[in-house]
Amino acid sequence: PINNIIWHKHIPFKISFFIWRALKGKLPTNETLQSLGRDIVDCYCCYNKGKDDINHILLTGNFAN
């Protein structure tokens, strides 16, 4: 059912693709990059080290507000 909402003809493809990647946990956040062996970087919206996760970016961070 969620696929019918995300992949709707009135939603631009790049928005649908971004939402799909966010729901699957495939965005390049500190969590995913660290699992690939990369170093943790500062959050670009508020410069807190290690705070760059999907919830912070889309819900609680300065950029989201």
- Topology, number of strands: 0
Range of helix content: 40-55%
**How much is the radius of gyration in Å?**
14 Å
Output the structural class. Answer: mainly alpha
Q: Helix count?
A: 4
- State the order of secondary-structure elements, H for helix, E for strand: HHHH
The low-pLDDT segments are: none
Strand content: under 5%
- The end-to-end span amounts to 29 Å
Shape field? globular
pLDDT average, as an integer?
81
Largest sheet: none
Layout of strands and helices, then pairs:
Layout: H1 2-6, H2 13-24, H3 30-35, H4 54-60
Characteristic key phrases:
globular; 65 residues; mainly alpha
Notes on the protein architecture:
The chain is 46% helix and 0% strand. It contains four helices and no strands. It is globular. The longest helix has 12 residues, at 13-24. By secondary structure, it is mostly helical. It has helices spanning 2-6, 13-24, 30-35, 54-60. The termini are far apart.
Summarize it.
The protein has 65 residues and is mainly alpha-helical. It has four helices and no strands. It starts with a helix and ends in a 5-residue tail after the last helix.
